[in-house]
Amino acid sequence: MSTVLDETQRACEAFEGQLVRCELTLPVMPGAASQVLGMTLDEDANAAALARLIQTDASLVGHIMRVANSALYRPSSPFVSLQQVIARLGMGTISEIALAGLAPLCWPERPLP
Fold first, then answer.
1. Close Cβ partners of 93 (under 8 Å, ≥ 6 residues apart)
2. Whole-number Å distance between alpha carbons of 10 and 69
3. Which residue did the predictor score with more confidence, 81 or 108?
4. What is the 3-state secondary structure (H, E, C) of 11-66?
5. What does the DSSP assignment read for 85-96?
6. CB contact at 8 A, 52 and 94
7. What global pTM score does this model have?
8. Residue pLDDT, tens place only, 55-90
9. Residue closest to 68 by CA, chosen among 48, 51, 53
10. Cβ(28)–Cβ(101) under 8 Å?
11. Whole-angstrom distance, CA of residue 85 vs CA of residue 7
């Protein structure tokens, strides 16, 4: 019985450590990312509608904001809103970032043999 309690305690400590170090991330949901892709391919779509769609998935918002504020896109000042990101990076780049968020679901980390 103590083994189960020990494992539970270790899992809780690991979770708490990730939370404190801001290393805990939620996976991007496939449905939201595919809807973003579909909207960016629609010639009649606009940035406001895309922002509303993205905002329905908190993990997708976080992923896009994290990538947009990374060294890859080097904003002169940090992006503070999703609308800023869409206006500066464009709908095509947003769809690429959204799809890249699916990578952990497609190729989960596995320890090497």
1. none
2. 33
3. 81
4. HHHHHHHHHHCCCCCCCCCHHHHHHHHHHHHCCCCCHHHHHHHHCCCHHHHHHHHH
5. HHHHH-HHHHHH
6. no
7. 0.68
8. 998 888 988 998 999 988 888 889 999 999 999 999
9. 51
10. yes
11. 42
